[in-house]
Inverse folding.
C-alpha cells in the first residue's frame, strides 16, 4: 500500500508539474500567436497605404502606343516611304532565368547571328531590367509562329507586332528621304519625347526623314493595362489615342527621279531638276546611292565598311553637300555682273590668242590656238576663257561675288534637307578675314572662269540656272510640296519669289549665249540639241579642274583626262533650261571626275531634260488620276 | 486535477461508450477551418471548384472518417505500438534517404502504389507517441537524470537529421521543436533547456556551414528580402505586398489582385494565408487565427482532462505540432520566418499534410475518448 501511496503522491507531483508546464507552454504559444497578430497589424494597418501603392504599381502598367509614322509620297501620291507590318522578337531580362540558354533555344527556332547576340547582350546590360530589348526584326510568318508555339520554353521572350519603315524605291530615293534608325544616346539626351524610350523605336537620321521627323513621328498615345506577374496584359483600364504622323507629299516626280539616277549610271555624280517658276525640285539624284531599307534593318559591319570605303561616296548627298568649282558654268554670272557694271557692252569683242597675260603671269584659255575675236554671246557659246579673264579683271572680285550671291551661289539655299553645304563665293573681305591676305588681281581672273576659291553645290547651280531662265526671280528650292495636316509646310509655295533686280535685256543676252552653246554651230554642247518636237534647250558646259597643270605639262601637251587616274580627272558640269522660249525646267548635272562637261555631263542632262519635257510634271496637277487611284488603294 | 473521484477504467470500453465520448465540438472546429480552406481554394481557382477545392473536400471527408476510426482505437494500443510505429517511420526515412542517394535528386516520399507516403509526415506523429510512451513512466525525479534524457534526445535527433538531409528544413524544425515541447511538459528541469539553448546558439556557425546553398540563401533573403527581389526574396516581398494591400477589411472575396494576377506564387498552397489576408484583410486573418486558437485551446483542454500521463503528453504533442504548422506558416508568409515550405494546416491544398493532421486529430480524439482508462507505469492494460 505504501508503494501505492508513494505512487499517487508522485503522480500528484507530476500532475502539478505538468499543469505548470502546460501554463508555461500555453503562455508561450499565446505570445507567439500575439506576435503574428502584431505583425498583421503592422502590415495591414500601419503599412497598408505603402503596400497598397506597391500593389497598384505591380498591377498597373502604363504603356506607350507608338503612332504610325507619316507616309512620304511623291507629287503624284506615289508612295516613297511606307510602313510595313513587322514581327519582332523582344526579350525582357528580368523575366529570363538564363540569358544564354534562352538565346540558344531561340537560335534553334530562328536564325540569330553572332552580331545579333552581341547587340542584344550589350543592350540588355545598358537598359533597365524590365525594358524589352529587340532581338530580331522582320520575322517571317513561319518564324513568328514557331516562336509563339515554343513560348512556354522561352520565358521572357515576347513577340510584338510593329511597323517597319519601307522605302519601295530603295536606292533611288535614299538621299532625299534619308532613313530611320534606332534612337541614340544623344537623341535621348536631347529630347523629352517618351516615344524615344520605346524599344526599337526608329527616328529619322537623314534626309526628309530627319528634317521632318517631328511631324512624321506623330504623338504617342498611351494605355493603362492591368498585368499579371509575368507581364501578360489582363485587361485595359484606360486608353489615350495618339496622333499618327503627318503624311508628306514631296515635289519629286518619282519617274523623273528614276530617269535621273539611270542617266548618271555608274558615274559618281548628281542631277537636279527644278521647276524654274516655283523652285520645286522635281528630281534630285545622287549616285552612287545606298539602300535606305538596309539602314532601317540595321547594317552589318561589312556592309558599312563597303559603303564607307567606296571612293565614289555613296553616303554623300552630292547635290546639297558636294562642293565643286563651278568652272565655266559660272560665266553667266560674270557676264551679268559685267553688263550690270557696264564694264563691257555685249557687242564689244575681246581678242583671244589662247592666253592672257597679267603682269608676268600667263593665264591660258582652254583652246590652245585661241578663239580670235569674241563678243559676249560667242564667249559664252565657245566658253572663251580669255574673254572672261578680261571681263573679270575689269570687274574685280567684289562685283562678281555680289552677282553670284544674288543668283544663290555661295550660301545654303535653305532646301528642306539636313546637311546642306554653302559652298564659297570669295571676295576681298573674305580673303582678309580668313586668309589674312590682300586679294590679287590674278585671283579675280581665275574666279572669272569659276575656278580658284569658288565652290558651289549642284543644287545652287540649278537655282542659278532657274533664276537666269525665269527672268531674274529669286526662286528658292523646295522639296516638300504639301502636307495633308500641316499647312505651314506648303506656305513656301504660295509666296511669290522676289525680283533679283537684274535687267531683262542682260538676261536675254546670257540666255542667248546659252542657246548658242547647245543650238549654235560650233557651240560647246551642240551634240545635245533636243529633238525638234520637244523645243529647244539652252545650256552651259563646265569643266572644273581638280589639279594644277604645270608649265612643263602645258609645254609638252596637257595630259588627257582619260590618261589620268580617276580621282585626278576634271569634274564635268552642265547646266541647262528648257523650253528656251518659255522656260519651265532647269537641269544641273555634275559628274565627279567625269572629264569634260560637254562630253560627259551634257548628254546626261539632255536625257533627263527630254524625259522632263515629255512628262511635264510641273503642269500636271498633283490631284491627278494617279493620286486618286492610290488613295482608294489605301 | 479534479477528476480523481471517478474510478479509472481497467478494461476495454464498449463502442457505444466511445462514440458517446467523441467531442463533436472539436470536429466542428476542424470542419470550420477546413471550410475556410475550401472557400480560399475556390477563390484561388478563379471561382472554380476544380482543380483544388473539390479534391480538398474529398480528402477532408475521407480524413474525418479516418479520424473517427482512429478515435475508436483504444489509446493503450497506440502506446503499445508506439515504438514499432517509430521504428517503421525511421526505417522508411532511411529508405528514402538511400533511394534519394541512389536515384536522381531528392525524393521525400515512398511510392506505395495506392498513395505516396511521406515518412517525415508519419514521423511527426510517431515521434509524439514514442516520446509520450517514453516519458509516461517517468516521475519528477526520473526526468532530472541526464542519462534518462539521452535516449529521447536521440529519438528526436535521428529523424531530424535524416529529414534535414532530404533537405527539408521546415519539417526538421517541427520535429525538433515538437520534441522539445514534450521534454518541457514531461517536466524536464528548465535549466537543461537553457543550457542546451546556450550550446545551440554557440553551434549556430557550425550549422550554418552545414546548410545547403539554397537554405543559406533563404535565411539570408529572410533577413534582407531586398537582397534579391526577383529571386528568392520575391515570394516574401510579393506576399507582404498582397497582405499589406489587403488592409483592415480586405479587397473582397475573389477580388485579391495580387493573388489573382499571379504575383503571389503558390497561392493555393503555402501562401494561401496571404490570399486570405488580401481578400479579407486583418479581420479575416485574426478571425482565422481565432479559430486556430479555439482548436489549440481544445487540445490543451483534452490534455488537462486526461487522467493518464501518456494521453496528456500525446495531446500536447499533437496540439503543439498543429500549433507549429500554424505559427511557422503564418510567420513565414508575413516575413517573420524564412520560407521553409510548411503549409497552413487544414487550409493549404495538399494531401500529405491533411493526412498527418487527420491522424493527429484522430489520436487526439482517442486520448479524449479514452481519458479515463488506466495505464500501468510500464504501459499496457493491467498492472
Amino acid at each position: 500500500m505504501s508503494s501505492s501511496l508513494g505512487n499517487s503522491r508522485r503522480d500528484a507531483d507530476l500532475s502539478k508539474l505538468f499543469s505548470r508546464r502546460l501554463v508555461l507552454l500555453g503562455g508561450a504559444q499565446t505570445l507567439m500567436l500575439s506576435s503574428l497578430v502584431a505583425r498583421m497589424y503592422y502590415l495591414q494597418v500601419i503599412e497598408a497605404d505603402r503596400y497598397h501603392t506597391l500593389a497598384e504599381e505591380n498591377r498597373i502598367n502604363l504603356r506607350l502606343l507608338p503612332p504610325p509614322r507619316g507616309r512620304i509620297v511623291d507629287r503624284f501620291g506615289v508612295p516613297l516611304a511606307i510602313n510595313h507590318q513587322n514581327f519582332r522578337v523582344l526579350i525582357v531580362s528580368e523575366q529570363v532565368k538564363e540569358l544564354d540558354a534562352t538565346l540558344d533555344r531561340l537560335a534553334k527556332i530562328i536564325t540569330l547571328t553572332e552580331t545579333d547576340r552581341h547587340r542584344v547582350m550589350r543592350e540588355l546590360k545598358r537598359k533597365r531590367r524590365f525594358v524589352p530589348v529587340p532581338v530580331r526584326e522582320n520575322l517571317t510568318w513561319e518564324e513568328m509562329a514557331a516562336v509563339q508555339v515554343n513560348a512556354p520554353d522561352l520565358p521572357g521572350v515576347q513577340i510584338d507586332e510593329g511597323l517597319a519603315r519601307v522605302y519601295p524605291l530603295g536606292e533611288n530615293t535614299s538621299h532625299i528621304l534619308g532613313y530611320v534608325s534606332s534612337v541614340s544616346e544623344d537623341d535621348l539626351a536631347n529630347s523629352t519625347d517618351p516615344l524615344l524610350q520605346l524599344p526599337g523605336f526608329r527616328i529619322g537620321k537623314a534626309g526628309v526623314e530627319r528634317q521632318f521627323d517631328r511631324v512624321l513621328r506623330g504623338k504617342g498615345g498611351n494605355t493603362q493595362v492591368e498585368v499579371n506577374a509575368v507581364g501578360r496584359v489582363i485587361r485595359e483600364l484606360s486608353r489615350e489615342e495618339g496622333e499618327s504622323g503627318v503624311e508628306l507629299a514631296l515635289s519629286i516626280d518619282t519617274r523623273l527621279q528614276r530617269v535621273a539616277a539611270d542617266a548618271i549610271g555608274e558615274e559618281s555624280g548628281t542631277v537636279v531638276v527644278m521647276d524654274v517658276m516655283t523652285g520645286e525640285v522635281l528630281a534630285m539624284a545622287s549616285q552612287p546611292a545606298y539602300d535606305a531599307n538596309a539602314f532601317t534593318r540595321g547594317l552589318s559591319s561589312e556592309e558599312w565598311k563597303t559603303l564607307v570605303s567606296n571612293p565614289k561616296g555613296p553616303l554623300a548627298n552630292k547635290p546639297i553637300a558636294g562642293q565643286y568649282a563651278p568652272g565655266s558654268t559660272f560665266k553667266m554670272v560674270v557676264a551679268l555682273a559685267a553688263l550690270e557694271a557696264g564694264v563691257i557692252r555685249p557687242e564689244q569683242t575681246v581678242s583671244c590668242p589662247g592666253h592672257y597675260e597679267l603682269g608676268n603671269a600667263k593665264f591660258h584659255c582652254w583652246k590652245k590656238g585661241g578663239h580670235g575675236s569674241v563678243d559676249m554671246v560667242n564667249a559664252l557659246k565657245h566658253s572663251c576663257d580669255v574673254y572672261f579673264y578680261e571681263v573679270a579683271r575689269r570687274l574685280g572680285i567684289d562685283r562678281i561675288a555680289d552677282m553670284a550671291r544674288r543668283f544663290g551661289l555661295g550660301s545654303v539655299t535653305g532646301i528642306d534637307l539636313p546637311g546642306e553645304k554653302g559652298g564659297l563665293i570669295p571676295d576681298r573681305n573674305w580673303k582678309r578675314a580668313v586668309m589674312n591676305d590682300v586679294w590679287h588681281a590674278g585671283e579675280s581672273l581665275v574666279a572669272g572662269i569659276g575656278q580658284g576659291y569658288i565652290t558651289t553645290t549642284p543644287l545652287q547651280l540649278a537655282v542659278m540656272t532657274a533664276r537666269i531662265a525665269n527672268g531674274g526671280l529669286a526662286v528658292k528650292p523646295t522639296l516638300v510640296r504639301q502636307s495633308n495636316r500641316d499647312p505651314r509646310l506648303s506656305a513656301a509655295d504660295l509666296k511669290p519669289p522676289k525680283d533679283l533686280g537684274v535687267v531683262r535685256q542682260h538676261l536675254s543676252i546670257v540666255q542667248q549665249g546659252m542657246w548658242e552653246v547647245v543650238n549654235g554651230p560650233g557651240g560647246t554642247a551642240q551634240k545635245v540639241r533636243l529633238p525638234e518636237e520637244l523645243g529647244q534647250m539652252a545650256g552651259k558646259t563646265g569643266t572644273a579642274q581638280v589639279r594644277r597643270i604645270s608649265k612643263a605639262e602645258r609645254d609638252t601637251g596637257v595630259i588627257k583626262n582619260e590618261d589620268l587616274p580617276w580621282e585626278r580627272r576634271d569634274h564635268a558640269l552642265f547646266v541647262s533650261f528648257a523650253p528656251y522660249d518659255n522656260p519651265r525646267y532647269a537641269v544641273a548635272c555634275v559628274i565627279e571626275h567625269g572629264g569634260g562637261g560637254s562630253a560627259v555631263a551634257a548628254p546626261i542632262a539632255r536625257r533627263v531634260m527630254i524625259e522632263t519635257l515629255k512628262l511635264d510634271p510641273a503642269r500636271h496637277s498633283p490631284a491627278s488620276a494617279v493620286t486618286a487611284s492610290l488613295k482608294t488603294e489605301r | 486535477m479534479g477528476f480523481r473521484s471517478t474510478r479509472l477504467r481497467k478494461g476495454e470500453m464498449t463502442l457505444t461508450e466511445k462514440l458517446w465520448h467523441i467531442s463533436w465540438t472539436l470536429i466542428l472546429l476542424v470542419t470550420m477551418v477546413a471550410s475556410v480552406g475550401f472557400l480560399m481554394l475556390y477563390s484561388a481557382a478563379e471561382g472554380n471548384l476544380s482543380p483544388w477545392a473539390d479534391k480538398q473536400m474529398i480528402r477532408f471527408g475521407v480524413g474525418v472518417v479516418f479520424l473517427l476510426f482512429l478515435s475508436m482505437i483504444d489509446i493503450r494500443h497506440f502506446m503499445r505500438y508506439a515504438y514499432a510505429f517509430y521504428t517503421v517511420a525511421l526505417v522508411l526515412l532511411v529508405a528514402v534517404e538511400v533511394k534519394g542517394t541512389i536515384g536522381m535528386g531528392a525524393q521525400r516520399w515512398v511510392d506505395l502504389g495506392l498513395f505516396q507516403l511521406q515518412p517525415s509526415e508519419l514521423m511527426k506523429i510517431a515521434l509524439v507517441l514514442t516520446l509520450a510512451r517514453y516519458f509516461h513512466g517517468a516521475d519528477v525525479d526520473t526526468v532530472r537524470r541526464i542519462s534518462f534524457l539521452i535516449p529521447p534526445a536521440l529519438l528526436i535527433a535521428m529523424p531530424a537529421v535524416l529529414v534535414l538531409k532530404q533537405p527539408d528544413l521546415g519539417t526538421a524544425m517541427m520535429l525538433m521543436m515538437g520534441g522539445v515541447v514534450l521534454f518541457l511538459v514531461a517536466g524536464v528541469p528548465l535549466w537543461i533547456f537553457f543550457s542546451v539553448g546556450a550550446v545551440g546558439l554557440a553551434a549556430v556557425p557550425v550549422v550554418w556551414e552545414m546548410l545547403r546553398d539554397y537554405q543559406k540563401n533563404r535565411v539570408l533573403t529572410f533577413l534582407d528580402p531586398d537582397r534579391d527581389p526577383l529571386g528568392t526574396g520575391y515570394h516574401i516581398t510579393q506576399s507582404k505586398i498582397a497582405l499589406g494591400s489587403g488592409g483592415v477589411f480586405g479587397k473582397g472575396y475573389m477580388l485579391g489582385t495580387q493573388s489573382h494576377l499571379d504575383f503571389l506564387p503558390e497561392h493555393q498552397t503555402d501562401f494561401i494565408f496571404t490570399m486570405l489576408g488580401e481578400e479579407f484583410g486583418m479581420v479575416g486573418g485574426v478571425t482565422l487565427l481565432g479559430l486556430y486558437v479555439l482548436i489549440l485551446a481544445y487540445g490543451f483542454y483534452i490534455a488537462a482532462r486526461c487522467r493518464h500521463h501518456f494521453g496528456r503528453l500525446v495531446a500536447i504533442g499533437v496540439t503543439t505540432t498543429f500549433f507549429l504548422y500554424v505559427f511557422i506558416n503564418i510567420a513565414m508568409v508575413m516575413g517573420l520566418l524564412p520560407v521553409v515550405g510548411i503549409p497552413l494546416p487544414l487550409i493549404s491544398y495538399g494531401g500529405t499534410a491533411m493526412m498527418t493532421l487527420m491522424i493527429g486529430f484522430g489520436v487526439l480524439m482517442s486520448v479524449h475518448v479514452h481519458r479515463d482508462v488506466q495505464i500501468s507505469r510500464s504501459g499496457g492494460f493491467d498492472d
About this structure: The CA atoms of residues 447 and 454 of chain A lie 7 Å apart.
